[in-house]
Amino acid sequence: MHMIPHKHVVTIGKVVRHASRLRGGTGSALPGLVVEKLDPKFAARVLSELPQGIVIITGTNGKTTTTKIVCKLLHDHGYRVFTNRTGSNFTRGIIASILAETNSDGMLDADIAVLELDEAYAAQFVKLIRPRYSLLLNVMRDQLDRFGEIDHTASLLRRVAEATIEGVVLNRDDPLVSKIASDLPTTMQVRYFGLGEELKSAFPSDQDLYGKSSVHQPLPAVSSSDVILEKLSGRSATFAFGTASLPRKTLKIDGVYNAQNAAAALAVTRMILGDEAADPAWLLGSLANARPAFGRGEAIEIDGQPLEIILVKNPAGFRLALDSYAARPARTMIAINDNYADGRDMSWLWDVPFKSLKHVEVIGGIRAYDMALRLQYDDVEVGTVIPSLSKALSTLLADKPQPRRIFCTYTAMMAIRRQLQSRYLLEDIDA
Amino acid sequence: MPKPPTKTLTLLHLYPEQMNIYGDWGNVLTLVQRAKWHGYDMKIVDHHPGKQLPADIDIVIGGGGQDSGQTVIQDDLLRIGDGLKRLADQRVPMLVICGLYQLFGHFFQTKDGERIRGIGLFDIETYGGDKRMIGNIVTRTAYGDLIGYENHSGMTVLGDDQKALGTVVRGDGNNGKDKTEGAVYRYVFGSYLHGSLLPKNPVFADALIEYAAMHRYGSFEPGIIDDHFADEARRIASTRPR
User: Fold this and answer.
1) Contact criterion met (CB below 8 Å) for A374 and A395
2) Is the pTM of this model over 0.80?
3) What percent of the residues of chain B are helix, what percent strand, and what percent coil, each to the nearest 5?
4) Under an 8 A CB cutoff, do B23 and A214 touch?
5) Annotated domain spans of chain B
6) Which has fewest Cβ within 10 Å: A96, A222, A230, B113?
């Protein structure tokens, strides 16, 4: 095909993006599609010009929140950071994000790219562009109907690590991730994030959840480059760099899984900045102001009461979410969809124990009755089952103002978010 | 209202640590809860590699696994194979899904040509393939339509006299070609419908409980269970994209 000059591809992409936004779209799919057709290497070329290179964050759970924290830490340190927006972690979405931020010369005004990538896509992406650093969070049973088996998912992460140029950060407590270290060349920097002994029981890995037999992996030794979440009490977290504990810090994020994401973010940020430049007190100060991504534990206020929206994607995530919130009762809704992005297979609901819930006010979503059936077998009382998310949300919000909570799958979360935005004119729901 | 349990049944769960992918626990939970609602206390006994088969088993359940899990259990399964066959001939009901379904046949042949021997309780052979047969599935059986989800790349071929569990209405089934799904020998059932097979198919679940009760007590008196949620979940699942 005749090569269209880069600058013109950018212009065309921007025009399509503008037009599709005028039509009320999110401006993500169509311009990405057009540019990808015109110039398949567009994203690779633009991103490879960034002076500090590319960081890839992948794994089953915690990508969005971790990416958000890494971007904030780097931004606070003075880096100009490019990132892809939530829900657009495929090529077209990345192109759309690039188009939104390039100047008219088609250059990205950034020092570094921090990209959140789906495991399967990350393994493809690194064939085109090798990342300078990668952060591998975890391998859990998620959307097995898309990736096949969990061992296969682990092999996808290994490919990302092997394509990385300078250094990888691995989850010390997830044997499927930590064992990747042994396949890497000795020239590769390998660092870990992890949990202190006290917290490990509160955060079982998938292997712990399903039986320990398939992988026997000794815990890697802790070096001073690693970041360990030693203690967590409410939102008050104690991190250690290696074995050196840092002063306790109060965070704006909830739950042990988000604090673990914070440890991962600290570890990769220290690698990027260098241990000398990354002053612990400064890092913690910056971290203390980081907020979780939408649907990852932040409450919005409705009728003067908190409404917590919690994204659940797989058994481990759902289980942890239930554990994290069990102590604070709230009027509860569960919304389960089975669109492609949620995973079509409902089997995963049977790997989550729901007994701690006792009562669920309303169940919504396409597969509301699968969820209701699941709760029936755990003897959990169910108020109303309404597949329509709009009606389900109205039911949750009826009754007197009180703390409320929604556990929802990805597309259900997006639908609920649109509903809330139109009903309450919320402006700053931040994805 | 469910009757308070007065009678006991014993369920043997095969390899709960290795073969438990895709929510197979849902099958065990469904049997235990429905048995309770029918008035039977169902006790779970786990079978781990190396252990002896316990006596007094009324029902056997086993699930699918990762390839790594399959490697761990294959020798042990051959060791207890004769014991399982004796139970089958004593009309003990069994349900095996995906990986264990394959190993209840003659062999599983990997794509590289390596053969993993099974116990040959079913007259079936399974060949590793390149195509993943994945998605919502509906099959027609003696227990009504079974509605579930399949996810396998093994292609299973039935021997000439081997009965299938069902006929595929929608989906791939054993091999994506001959419209058969699963296999049946006496009250032993193999199937590719994983995880949520029994919750959404209460008629089949109750048949297994009935066979278990018949094996233990020679009779079965069902209770009344509200299956409204299951009915609705079945109705919606059958309309969803593959």
Assistant:
1) no
2) no
3) 30, 35, 40
4) no
5) 7-237
6) B113
Q: What local confidence, expressed as pLDDT, does residue A366 receive?
A: 97
The pair phi, psi for residue A74, each rounded to 5°, is: -70, -40
pLDDT of residue B17: 85
Q: Looking at the structure, give the CATH architecture of the domain made up of residues B7-237.
A: 3-Layer(aba) Sandwich (3.40)
Q: Compute chain A's Rg from CA coordinates.
A: 22
Q: Letter for the amino acid at A31?
A: P
Confidence band for B77, pLDDT divided at 50, 70 and 90: very high
- Domain formed by A6-211+218-288, architecture: 3-Layer(aba) Sandwich (3.40)
B38 a catalytic residue: no
Q: What is the mean pLDDT of residues B120-135?
A: 94
Write down the pLDDT at residue B242. Answer: 85
**pLDDT value of position A323:** 82
Q: Is A303 left (phi over 0), alpha (psi -120 to 50) or beta?
A: left
Chain B residues whose C-beta is within 8 A of a chain A C-beta are: 16-18, 20-26, 29-30, 33, 66-69, 72, 132, 134-136, 149, 151, 153, 194-196, 199-200, 229-230, 232-233, 235-237, 240-242
pLDDT-flagged residues of chain A (< 50): 1, 143-146, 212-214, 427-431
- For CATH 3.40.1190.10, the residue range(s) in chain A are 6-211+218-288
What's the DSSP call for residue A166? S
Active site residue B152: no
- Residue A271 is predicted with a pLDDT of 96
SS3 A204: coil
Q: Which of B13, B152, B194, B215 is catalytic?
A: B194
Confidence of residue B125 (pLDDT cuts 50, 70, 90): very high
How does pLDDT run across B160-203, given as a tens digit for each residue? Answer: 999 999 999 999 999 999 999 999 999 999 999 986 799 999 99
Quickly name the fold that domain A296-424 has. Protein-Tyrosine Phosphatase; Chain A (3.90.190)
Mutate to test the interface with A, among B1, B15, B20, B22 (most CBs of A within 10 A): B22
- Pick A346's closest partner by Cβ from B21, B72, B196: B196
Q: What is the DSSP letter of A172?
A: T
| Beta carbons of A325 and A234 less than 8 angstroms apart | no
Work out whether strand B183-185 and strand B188-191 pair parallel, antiparallel, or are unpaired.
antiparallel
- What residues does CATH 3.90.190.20 cover in chain A? 296-424
- Give the model confidence (pLDDT) of B12-50 as tens digits: 999 998 887 767 889 999 999 999 999 999 999 999 999
d(CA B200, CA A126): 41
Mean pLDDT (chain B) is 93
